[in-house]
Write a structure and sequence with these properties.
Layout: H1 22-42, E1 50-54, H2 58-69, E2 73-78, E3 82-85, H3 92-101, E4 113-114, H4 115-121, E5 129-132, H5 141-149, E6 154-155, H6 172-180, E7 182-183, H7 186-189, H8 192-200, H9 211-232, H10 239-251
Parallel strand pairs: 1-2, 1-5, 5-6, 6-7
Antiparallel strand pairs: 2-3, 3-4
Amino acid sequence: MGVIKVIEDSQFSPDVTKKYTVADMLTGFGVAEAVKHYYDIYGGVMVGKRAIVQGFGNVGAASAYYLTQLGVQVVGIMDKEGGVIREEGFSMEEMKALFLAKDGNTLVSEHRMPFEEINQKIWSIPAEIFVPAAASRLVSKEQVQQMINSGLEVISPGANVPFADKEIFFGSIMEYTDNYLSLLPDFISNCGIARVFAYLMERRVSLPMLDKAIFEDTSQTIKKALQRTFEANASKTNICSTAFEIALKQLI
């Protein structure tokens, strides 16, 4: 009931009349909240930062929507068909319109560039935040290097294993990225749906279920995980490897 619950709170839905569900929005919400908690915990101001979003399905579109809501300037969005660039950032109304206009996982815009063109341009746009939220194993080392050269600070994955590594855990591109900037672990940043399953199976859930309670539980879970990672290693690099080490110790 909770996963397919229609969102009624306008704080969490771009349009309550469209009947978006918790499952539609929660993972992308968590990805954006992970960025917020990163800046709160590791230092820095999130408002006014620029972001690039790869993928515009449920996770990518929701991430872009919630990041804009938090005061981030989304300057580039791309999917497998093409994308859009707005170096001054999309307004909240523009982002809402893009979200509502998308066709399945495809970005719909009169300003959309062909994939080949945006794939040449987007990686060198100045941006501090990157959200890989398309298919797994797409992001190359060269693309990471271009973004680092353009001022990238943090990556909050919406995709599982976003880098084009053969390995599932800690391939060479992932390790390189973790060494040079703040890479948030995918199992923390996109834990939304897994976390909501756990939350809804706990006895403390009251009825009727409230959107705010469900979404805030995911946000607080991500915050606690990043705080614990920070306590083990306060550096803005090697965040992902530190979190993996904590997780593996828990499993053992």
